[in-house]
Amino acid sequence: MTTTSTTGADAPPRPTVRPTRDDRRHRWTRRAPLLPALVFAIVVTQLPFLFTLYLSTQSWNALRPGSREFIGLANYATVLTDGRLRAALLNTVVLTASSVIASVLLGLGLAILLDRKFPGRGIVRTLLITPFLVMPMAAALLWKHAIYNPSYGLINGILGGSTDWVSQYPMVSVVAALVWQWTPFMMLIILAGLQSQSLETLEAARVDGAGPWQTFTRITLPYLRPYLELGALLGSIYLVQTFDAVFTITQGGPGRATTNLPYEIYLTTFRKFEYGEAAAAGVVVVIGTIIVATFALRVISSLFRMEDAR
Amino acid sequence: MTRTASPARRSAGRTGAAWTVLAWLAGLLFFLPVAWMVLTGFKREVDAASNPPSWFFTPVLDGYRQVFDRDITPYLLNSVMASVLSTLLVLVLATPAAYALSIRPVERWRDVLFFFISTKMLPVVAALLPIYLLVQDLGMLDNVWTLIVLYTAMNLPLAVWMMRSFLLEVPAALIEAAAMDGADLLVTIRRILVPIVAPGLAATALICFIFSWNEFFFAVNLTATRAGTSPIFLVGFITSEGLFLARLCAAATIVSLPVVLAGWIAQKQLVRGLSMGAVK
Would you put residue B243 in left (φ > 0), alpha (ψ -120 to 50) or beta? Predict the structure, then answer.
């Protein structure tokens, strides 16, 4: 029992001598609490992907029973050569990047507004976080029918005119609804960052004659960087999978103007019933995700070291 | 030095007042769509579809009455069951795992931690087809338990990360002292870990509940009338003919209410939970 480490320190002690039977049992008692969660995660999240790999080699349309056969990589050729997947990829990038960037910037602005005492600060904060708490499906329906509707929507009601926002500016309509929901999330994370900043540093900068703008760009912004990164990263993880808003507000249209990858694969699976193609598209998306996620994990890893160093 | 005494943050004079007004305007602007949703829910359908929008009207409960006439209750119950049970299951799985990744870490705990978070990055849509076929094969389509299992997997990485961050806050000396006094593991857990970690457990449960309650993608593809959850009920309200805005808003208000209230009450835990424990 003497070597038992009870801290979360960086390197757990490793046995330097050859493991005896006792050591081995010891290690398994350590692992035991982890195993149920690990096994569950592997079974539910990893095994389906193996099945996807297999399905991607099949020619299988569920509307034509008995049509199923092995066709090797032909589905990949189909998926990669017709432009739909590429268009969906481009839409996904535009949709994710613009929503994340806009909500981080707005969130930063709001966090700065809230990082000072003023009458009713708690109420304003509560008002601001509410959009994030509204059910995404309810929010999407609300924006589509109560806000964008050309004849009785709120925007035209206030501004006048009869613009059909969703069909004229489809991508902007989807992004605006998402930004409305995700700005509070960014604000909360950035605000936590602002409030953890040491007042002495700010005071010192002021004494040294730095103006508010200088203090902000030279001291506060660099300090906030990990918080901004964290917000952007977590936001991207969720927003890249956007489905509810596209499904509801534009149905991927007009044409394919707002069809992102999740919606495209959903259409292939449950509207065209091209199971083989859908699986191949899924595999391609997973490979793309792994490439992007490798970078993302590096960011998390650096944030993580920062947390350890504290 | 307290925050208010700091000259850097003191809001003084006219600029201070201007910033305050700006903050209030921003808050009201962001809240406006929600307020509009709640207001519209209390209108008659003709008022809801009026042009220009009516701000003053006699509130009626027609919308709400229709929502309950169309039988929202089973959908709400399905949502409650899927969210509560999956949250419990997540906590049961994640807490011991977090323990094995923080207080008594297994070797290569860092890799395990990153494995969990990487499952969150894989696109759900790529797993939909195999899951659908498997669930169909097992005869589990339109069954709440299917959602419970999937929501558990969806929230597990989040919960493991959060619980780990809370467990790391337990002072190592305290656990050592307990071990020295001859307390066995169960006693240590009950007397030392649980009291310290209880708020963290609550924060984790809140986040998992929110994400399960709001989930739509699996629900729409794997359930129909029997196991449908509240977002499925909402979608069913859209009709191509006739006016539906008031009752849609009433329904949207009802299904959003549990999470909005929980989030308002637990604002502080929300921040830490959403950042997976990284922001304290």
Answer: beta
pLDDT above 70 (res B212): yes
Across chain A, what does the average pLDDT equal? 83
Q: Which of A5, A113, A180 sits opposite B26 (nearest CB)?
A: A113
Q: Which of A109, A154, A241 sits opposite B124 (nearest CB)?
A: A241
DSSP annotation string for A81-134? HSTHHHHHHHHHHHHHHHHHHHHHHHHHHHHHHHSS--TTHHHHHHHHHHHHHS
Residues contacting A294, CB < 8 A, separation 6+: none
Q: Which residues of A touch B119 (CB under 8 A)?
A: 41, 45-46
Q: What is the residue extent of each domain of chain B?
A: 14-65, 67-274
Number of Cβ within a 10 Å radius of residue A157: 19
Rounded to two decimals, what is the model's pTM?
0.85
Q: How large is the ipTM?
A: 0.86
H helix and E strand count, chain B: 14, 0
Topology given in CATH for the domain delimited by B67-274: MetI-like fold (1.10.3720)
A16 pLDDT more than 70: no
The H or E element spanning position A149 is none
Cα within 13 Å of Cα(A266), Cβ side = 21
Q: Give DSSP secondary structure letters for A156-199.
A: HHHH-S---HHHHSHHHHHHHHHHHHHHHHHHHHHHHHHHTS-H
What is the architecture of the domain spanning A82-272? Orthogonal Bundle (1.10)
Q: Which residue shows structure tokens 């002072």?
A: B171
| Cβ neighbours of residue B108 closer than 8 Å, sequence gap 6 or more | none
- Sequence length of chain A is 310
Contact A266 B175 (CB under 8 A): no
Instruction: Spell out the domain ranges in chain A.
Output: 82-272
Distance CA(A83)–CA(A53), nearest Å, equals 22
Contacts A282 to B, Cβ<8 Å? 123, 125-129
A210: chain B residues, CB-CB within 8 Å: none
